[in-house]
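Subgroup meeting minutes
Present: P.N., E.W., G.H.
Scribe: E.W.

1. P.N. recapped why we're keeping a running log of single-chain structure predictions: easier to compare across weeks, and new members can see raw inputs and outputs side by side.
2. G.H. added today's entry (555 aa).
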Amino acid sequence: MLTDIEIAQSAKLRKISEIAKEIGVEESEYEPYGHYKAKLNESLFKRVKDNKNGKLILVTAINPTPAGEGKTTTTVGLGQAFAKINKNAIIALREPSLGPVFGVKGGAAGGGYSQVLPMEDINLHFTGDMHAITAANNLLCAMIDNHIQQGNSLGIDERRIVFKRCMDMNDRALRNIVVGLGGKANGFVREDGFMITVASEVMAILCLSRDFDDLKERLANILVAYTISGEPVRAKDVGAHGAMAVLLKDAINPNLVQTLEGTPVLMHGGPFANIAHGCNSVRATKLALKLADYCITEAGFGADLGAEKFLDIKCRLAELNPSAVVLVATVRALKYNGGADKKSLSEENLAALEKGIVNLGAHIDNIHKFGLPVVVAINRFGTDSEAELNFISDYCKARNADFALSDVFANGGDGGIELAKAVVAACEKPSDFAPIYPIDATIKEKINAVATKIYGARGVIYTANAEKNIAEAEKLGGGNMPICVAKTQYSMSDNPALLGRPSDFDVTVREVKLSAGAGFVVVLTGDIMTMPGLPKVPAAEKIDMDSDGNITGLF
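Output recorded in log:
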């Protein structure tokens, strides 16, 4: 059996000029990055801005196992399947982060015969977007420190600098550091830290910006510190936002690539859904809606994280109106939610499946709370038994939920035709989309709405620090913004050990941060970290390259 990278390397890619021409992009409207990648420029946006919008389809999932359960693979396969049934669709995906690529699981551009290509490029440096975001973020950090070093005319309180450095790699040693050692010429000594690039506010800003002017305005509004007297200091106050925008001049443009079957993909931005808002860029999504009859996009991790943030943050801020939601479920993940050991997920276990399937029910219910049609995509694994697959099918029937088996990993677009037909039908159903909370609710009211209505919590507990943070955030205008909850992806609660559909639990909020540039309030729960660490055996140990430059071990 071929590995994902062997499948990708054996594929015959089409020139990106062919892909661009097929979706109606003119030669002057893109800049090639080699033969198989391109950036779509502002002239294209201006030309198609009055086109009619296509239908927006969100792909989300139940709570996953630690290994992940194929949501991106399903998204890619669904896009390929739309082409098989002669539907004009464009996929809009996030860019992979180098942290997971070299840390937990290797590559992240789909799998099997439903991949985005060129897979190696996408999973590594791609078109440099991540590096541009990292550079812009760290330029702001350098300018804050330099401002203080050069006299501190703003009166910044060195103890209350809230903006951190970032890098796109898992490195727990950088979570909490001390900078400025080495004497007066090397700055001032203070505590600092790093977060992973995909969790940074600059990443969120890039993904939520409508255009270059909006990008610059959002960068200007980043809250970076407080003065000695307690007044906020923003990026514009240290004069950093213009230069930051220049570093992001190319990164703001969506990337055009292709699937294994030569269908178009816009891949742009990459925020994590457990510690950020988890959706690809507004620009890529809106462009796909102008260029195709259907835009198929995804949101990270389970629907309690990615879908909630997509619907409450991205759709609200970008004025998007989804037509349908695809909910990816697997036998493996449902058995895991029913208490099965990770090592035994390949064995038939109807008892664990029956216990864990309530997790699927919770996510179906939650999507309906947003007023949207849902189609359950049962992502087939080779180890699934017919009895297990039938059990999920019968459960969906009993709940009057549309469903379809998906075999896109093994069979590409052909394995997703049944799912594609079901999704097209769902898009024609009536929907009454609305966010789960009103924007004019208080921060606590918004947190309570997500915790109780989506997670199923009994209530919310706030630490003294969180109470103080909320008061400060509301004072600075955060009360008029949506919230972005950072929590574990493995449970609907903030405790990764509570699987299935937990009840009688409280969510503990330990910290709240205002992301004024992004336009939302970050709510940190449980033990969630904004800088992940590498596992005991990093995926990087298996990645290598031969003397001819052929990469091995990358997924």
